[in-house]
Write a structure and sequence with these properties.
There is one protein chain. The chain is an alpha/beta fold and 141 residues long. Strands 3-2-1-4-5 form a 5-stranded parallel β-sheet. It has a single domain, classed as 5'-nuclease (Rossmann fold), CATH 3.40.50.1010. It is globular. The chain contains 7 helices and 5 strands; from the N terminus they run E-H-H-E-H-H-E-H-H-E-H-E.
């Protein structure tokens, strides 16, 4: 079974209201992945970084995302001194703080994939070979 780490923007994307085809396609693909995670085809994991970022959303959106996250995740990576050190290394490579914690957590869990719709996160990970998991857009999964 493949282990997939969904970062916070994947959970948020489900609730994006727009007429942009790319956003609609991403949301549909994330729903498909989540359904397959719920049915046991994939193991979907998260981390303290997802919980922190969910808490930064407006109250109404936070409740919806939090409920979805708790329903979908089959595991949650806890912070460790090793993952904190790895996140600091990743920040030196150009990742934003929370993105570095997402990637460090996915690596600590030996995830097969980290899915994100964050273009900057994807761009940095695609130009370097420092990630120990495959970081991709859900449409490419």
């Amino acid at each position: 079974m493949q282990t997939i780490y969904l970062d916070t923007c994947c959970y948020s994307r489900i609730f994006d209201v727009t007429d942009q085809i790319s956003v609609i396609n991403e949301a549909g693909r994330i729903r498909y992945i989540m359904r397959n995670g719920f049915s046991g085809k994939y193991r979907i994991i998260g981390s303290f970084a997802v919980v922190i970022e969910i808490g930064q959303n407006p109250k109404k959106e936070r409740r919806r995302i939090e409920k979805l996250y708790n329903l979908i995740k089959s595991g949650e990576v806890q912070v460790s001194p090793q993952s904190e050190a790895r996140a600091q290394e990743l920040q030196l490579e150009g990742l934003k703080e929370m993105d570095s914690f997402h990637l460090a957590a996915a690596e600590a869990a030996h995830a097969d994939y980290l899915l994100t719709v964050d273009k900057d996160f994807l761009k940095i990970c695609s130009r370097s070979n420092f990630a120990k998991v495959k970081v991709i857009n859900p449409l490419n999964f």
